[in-house]
């Protein structure tokens, strides 16, 4: 008597497999698609080469020189402006004058009482084109002669548009300061041919030169003699870290775009079949009949779950064989554990089955 539920459950599984066997066309199409996917993947893996690149070593870049774009009349024919906030502080004015002198460029200095006033100014016609940078000191100066605090905080506000067009990269967005990592990581070094770092242009737009000049001016404010002596025989450079040799596998570009779509398409076949089977039983009132003869509701759902989980397991097993088959030059997936990939896809299959259960409750025919 204790095993009666087990016999009922096995009868339900047998019923589901019989119904699945009668849908022979859908079953054959499903396995043909899996084999077609496997052959396409293996042929693509065999045809795409693996290219060795590197190592990369980068040259030194000075940070005390402004970019050449300031001397190009085609960039801006007038005189570049250096804006600062707040304008009422004598200390800030002196620091800006030191910055102007250290950069050896005849900037037109423009002060503003607040950052909002500066924003109104650059929104006017052509004003944003002539302002190279705005130096915003984040400190409340009560009086014009207030000293600079020991903990100095300032912002450099450059134009969001790329001004230096004579470089090997083009920046479509702003400075992207809110992003720690690129949305699409590269296999090798970013901007691998640019010793200046490339995108977004911290050197080519003059950001590092301006930052270095402001820091040096702040140091001179606190101790002019010591700072002058320190930088008298010192030249500051920046240099990118070298990058070792790496393998550039063009297959992963194809793999990252196509494989998720293919897996989703293969899994959707069982997904649609499962929904159709459940809704068909409700439409024909077979589910009510099964409940009337003593079967439990959980048995019906569990039988469908294990029936389609077994079908998904066969498909996932075939996919793992394709992923880890030893072919030339290398397998499709090289550095992952097959059991981990199998469990991962199996979890996705389980989630798909439960999603199918949820969708089936919205339909009666």
From TrEMBL:
Regions crossing the membrane: 24-43, 250-278, 298-327, 339-363
Database matches in InterPro entries: ABC2_TM, ABCA
Protein species of origin: Gulo gulo (Wolverine)
Cellular component, GO annotation: membrane
GO molecular function: ABC-type transporter activity; lipid transporter activity
Keyword Glycoprotein attributed: no
Recorded topology in the membrane: Multi-pass membrane protein
ABC-2 type transporter transmembrane domain span: 208-364
Compartment(s) where it occurs, according to its Swiss-Prot or TrEMBL record: Membrane
Keywords associated with the record: Membrane, Transmembrane, Transmembrane helix
Name listed for the protein in its UniProt record: ABC-2 type transporter transmembrane domain-containing protein
Lineage: Eukaryota, Metazoa, Chordata, Craniata, Vertebrata
Top-level division of the source organism's lineage: Eukaryota
């Amino acid at each position: 008597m204790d095993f009666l539920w087990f016999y009922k459950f096995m009868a339900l599984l047998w019923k589901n497999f019989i119904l699945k066997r009668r849908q022979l066309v859908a079953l054959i199409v499903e396995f043909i698609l899996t084999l077609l996917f496997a052959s396409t993947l293996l042929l693509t893996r065999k045809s795409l080469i693996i290219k060795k690149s590197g190592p990369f070593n980068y040259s030194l870049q000075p940070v005390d020189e402004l970019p050449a774009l300031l001397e190009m009349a085609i960039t801006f024919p007038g005189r570049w402006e250096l804006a600062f906030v707040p304008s009422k502080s004598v200390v800030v004015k002196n620091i800006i004058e030191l910055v102007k002198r250290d950069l050896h460029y005849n900037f037109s200095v423009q002060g503003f009482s607040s950052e909002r006033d500066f924003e109104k100014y650059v929104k006017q016609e052509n004003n944003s084109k002539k302002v190279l940078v705005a130096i915003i000191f984040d400190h409340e100066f009560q009086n014009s002669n207030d000293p600079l605090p020991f903990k100095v905080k300032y912002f450099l506000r450059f134009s969001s548009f790329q001004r230096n067009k004579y470089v090997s990269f083009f920046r479509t967005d702003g400075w992207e300061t809110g992003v720690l990592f690129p949305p699409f990581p590269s296999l090798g070094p970013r901007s691998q041919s640019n010793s200046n770092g490339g995108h977004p242009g911290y050197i080519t737009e003059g950001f590092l030169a301006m930052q270095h000049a402001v820091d040096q001016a702040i140091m001179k404010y606190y101790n002019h003699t010591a700072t002058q002596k320190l930088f008298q025989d010192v030249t500051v450079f920046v240099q990118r870290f070298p990058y070792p040799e790496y393998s550039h596998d063009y297959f992963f570009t194809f793999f990252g775009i196509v494989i998720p779509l293919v897996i989703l398409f293969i899994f959707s076949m069982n997904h649609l079949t499962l929904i159709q089977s459940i809704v068909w039983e409700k439409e024909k009132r077979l589910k009510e009949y099964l409940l009337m003869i003593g079967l439990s509701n959980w048995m019906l759902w569990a039988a469908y779950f294990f029936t389609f989980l077994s079908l998904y397991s066969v498909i996932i097993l075939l996919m793992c064989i394709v992923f880890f088959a030893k072919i030339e030059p290398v397998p499709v997936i090289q550095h992952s554990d097959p059991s981990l990939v199998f469990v991962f896809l199996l979890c996705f299959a389980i989630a798909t089955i439960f999603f199918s259960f949820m969708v089936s409750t919205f339909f009666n025919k």
